[in-house]
UniProtKB/TrEMBL annotation:
Keyword Coiled coil appears in the UniProt entry: yes
Coiled-coil intervals, chain numbering: 157-212
InterPro entries, per database record: Big_6
Keyword Transcription regulation: no
Alphabetic keyword roster: Coiled coil
Biased composition (Polar residues): 130-143
Record-given protein name: Bacterial Ig domain-containing protein
Sequence segments annotated as region (Disordered): 121-147
Length: 274
């Protein structure tokens, strides 16, 4: 009897240990999440990057429409052909792998940064008096300083011309930034009147329905109208930001043009004084 009791106790203890140690009690072990997408490079037809090796990578629009998909190599690198040019678009990556927690990240398009340019002041050069000196022409510098010879004059002129070239490049970049801004507005906002017309159509459709007789259709029409209002509000907000950036871009162009004119005047003054 005692032997039978010991056997039953051993079986009971084994069952308790099995239940306590069971994954059903403790839950699943914490899964590791797939790596964040890094080293992103976007071309007209492809998107490249790096994540967890062997992971499936899906490229999506911000509204979750699939643009392309592929698989990361043993080193985690991937190249995916996409259905549209994403060089100037915001889109998403969805990365999944069996045994891992998936990850969705957003890759945002950033407008070109405004060029940062230093504005050194051209040195003041006193009008020299030239005279022959052993066959070499020298320029008389201010009292107590060394004379300025032909080599120094060339250096000063080259310096002034380099500053003109820099100013011309800065002006060109400012104009290109404005063009990019205008293209961005046209591609992602379009004509605001179209959104307003969509809103009006949905208002008319809702007015023509009876919430008692056509409850389902009325509900759908009401939801469509609310969505149209939200969309129009976002577009209006985008236009406000665009106009602000547009004014800043024009102001930058005016500043770069003024800088170029100043550099040209510096060179003209230099040539007349040396």
């Amino acid at each position: 009897m005692e032997s039978r009791y010991k056997i039953l106790m051993a079986v009971a203890i084994g069952m308790i240990v099995g239940v306590v140690g069971s994954p059903a009690v403790h839950g699943h072990a914490k899964k590791k999440q797939v790596a964040r997408v890094t080293q992103v490079r976007v071309t007209a037809k492809k998107v490249q990057g790096k994540t967890t090796k062997g992971a499936k990578v899906v490229v999506l629009t911000t509204k979750n429409r699939i643009l392309g998909q592929g698989e990361a190599t043993s080193k985690g690198a991937f190249t995916i052909k996409v259905r549209k040019n994403l060089k100037k678009a915001t889109f998403k990556f969805k990365v999944t792998k069996k045994g891992y927690v998936s990850r969705t990240t957003v890759h945002k398009y950033k407008l070109p940064q405004k060029p940062v340019v230093t504005n050194p002041v051209a040195p003041e050069v006193e009008k020299p008096t030239s005279h022959p000196n052993n066959g070499q022409q020298l320029v008389t510098a201010p009292s107590g300083s060394k004379p300025v010879d032909q080599k120094t004059k060339k250096i000063l002129i080259r310096w002034a011309k380099d500053k003109i070239a820099d100013a011309e490049m800065n002006l060109q970049k400012a104009n290109e930034a404005l063009e990019e801004l205008i293209k961005y507005q046209q591609n992602y906002f379009g004509d605001m009147t179209w959104y307003e017309e969509q809103l009006r159509e949905k208002e008319v459709r809702l007015d023509g329905l009876n919430d008692q007789k056509d409850s389902d259709a009325y509900k759908r029409a009401k939801e469509d109208l609310e969505q149209a209002r939200v969309t129009l509000a976002k577009v209006a907000e985008g236009y406000i930001t665009y106009y602000k950036d547009y004014e800043e871009a024009h102001q930058l162009i005016a500043e770069r043009q003024q800088e170029l004119n100043s550099r040209k005047q510096d060179l003209a003054n230099l040539l007349s004084e040396i």
